[in-house]
Write the structure tokens for this entry.
Amino acid sequence: MEIRVLKYFLAVAREGSITGAANSLHLTQPTLTRQLKDLEKELGHKLLIRGKYKVTLTQEGMILRNRAQEIVDMADRTTEEFKSITDIIKGDVYIGGGETRAIKFLTDIIKEIRQEYPDIKYHIYSGNAEDVTEKLDRGLLDFGVLIQPIDLKKYDSITLPYYDTWGVITKKDSILADKKFVTLYDLAKLPIIASRQMSRKYSKDSGFLDWFGDEFDNLDIVATYNLVYNAGIMVESGIGHAVSLKGLINDTGKSPLKFIPLKPKLQSGLDVVWKKYRMFSPAAKLFLDKLREKLK
């Protein structure tokens, strides 16, 4: 498979028609059609269902679309990395992570680097640990910022000098609103909007099993989330009370929401991780060097 042909296929998937894709690629329609048929022959599977007015993907076509996008992204990144190998450090740094206030520590480093190296661009991807580690493993991210616990066998890492504090996002007129802390007794019979860390798969290491004790399996978990913005909307709608990290929602002024910490206190550490034996671009290496320097 050629990268060029994969880009042709992605254009057809995006445009939904061969004519539209040919126009966007500045190709003739017969040329594009021939390239697509050769790709189907090479893979041994039909990729497109050609209708009168639009083209849709087969199941195999949808699989290829995902893989092709990753291959094209990786090829583009590799090209950019080689272009950046000059006396002037430039290029792109890709960072993924969950929602945490500790990201400001990294953005302060980015701001400092930009004063001396303005040609470096930064791309921030938000997602949970599974999303971020998958992209790290595939080489689509340079670094991940992960909330502990995390299995570090495949990664090198730096632990940040920060802890995130867990608490509850609730409405300012809710039954919890007047409390300074939220206890297990308070949450035992309330509808809860749970984060990924509260799932049984992760809760033992993150401390939730210890915190909730025997009540863990009796929780009334009415919804789950991986981005706190969506959790906040669910809280506003009155669906429940979201267990979340401090500092991720606006609870000032006219905001209808309020954050209340858990008692006893529950905290999680944070790691910046990267794939072992990864060869960094000059831009990514500069970022890592600055990070290490800040943590000395």
User: Anything to note?
Assistant: The CA atoms of residues 23 and 221 lie 50 Å apart.
